[in-house]
Amino acid sequence: MFREEHGLLLAALVRRFGDLDLAEEVTAEAIEAALAHWPVHGVPPNPGGWLMTTARRRAVDRLRRDQAYAARLAVLQVEADRAGPVPAVEPGRDLPDERLQLFFTCAHPALAAEDRGALTLRCLAGLTTAEVARAYLVPTATMAKRITRAKRKISGARIPFRVPGPDELPERLPGVLQVLYSIFTEGYAASAGPSLQRLDLAEEAIRLVRILHRLLPGEREVDGLLALVLLVHARRAARTGPGGEPVLLDEQDRTRWDHPMIDEGRAVLTAALTGGPPGPYAVEAAIAALHDEAPDVAGTDWAQIVALYDVLLGLVPSPVVALNRAAAVAMRDGPAAGLALLDELAGDPLLREYHPYPMARADLLARLGRRRDAAEAFRAALALAGTEPERAFLRRRLAAVENDL
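and the corresponding structure tokens:
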């Protein structure tokens, strides 16, 4: 319940007080108060309203006590009058959902590009600063400075807390979509920790994409992103074994896939692919749909998947996309063809710390019978893998290859 209410509460308080640090502090204080009060007196009928009332009182008390905030109170009142009344929290009703406004604030172009996603992951996805740092492959102290810098920029530049108008939307929307996709990706394939998947994060991302989809009907890349996360998340139950170990696509029990979610994703994808050239998320979703529709790996339309990766490379020239395309070529034309493409990417600095690259090479080398080279590649992937299930999986693959030497 606290995880669900945290983002709602934070966004509502930022809208009311215009101060992200203050909102974070009183949100934490309200939750702390609930942890002390509710076990004794019971959970109130409207938990969100209780938290909001408590946090708002704490914020007002703090502002009144702090002389430095005296002028800020007057400014807040003027801004509130201009913006109109803040929706009240009535008994039995939930908090107004203003999180997407905070997403657009965090994705404002005045912020440094590297700070936008980090701030949003920290404030709205509930990731700790250390988790955000792992997602961006930087030290925790560096990420803490980035987040603090972004907050100061929002405050100093008086970045408005609102959804942008139609003229601003094309510039601002891609940043919000990228943040949502980053949250989903961290949930789908955790960057570190004891589990391969963080289903709570993935489901939070899907829920937020659904809200954005309702807020912006007809935006085809929003359609594309919603289709993509649904079509990928539909495989969640089959992606890990009983002990949490990874299960590769060719070994997954497809009867465990969420077929109603696949149907929903395919329906949304139709809208994303209608009305003009598709965007990157729609193309990725089309690739995911081909995997979901296939009866097995052998029956997958690899030729069409390679063609879609060609389109995606034209839209997003990325070494990760090129890596995925090489894997698809290996399925279409054989491991030697895929390995040749992977070797062309060997010097790319973005892949040096990306463990799926040596893992893909190791798999193709093993399929070609080059077991000594495969073992070396598995060791490289093992050194880079972030989660314990991935490391255990790679250790087993390495042992199997070494036993055949």
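(Above: one complete record from the training split.) The CA atoms of residues 8 and 97 lie 6 Å apart.
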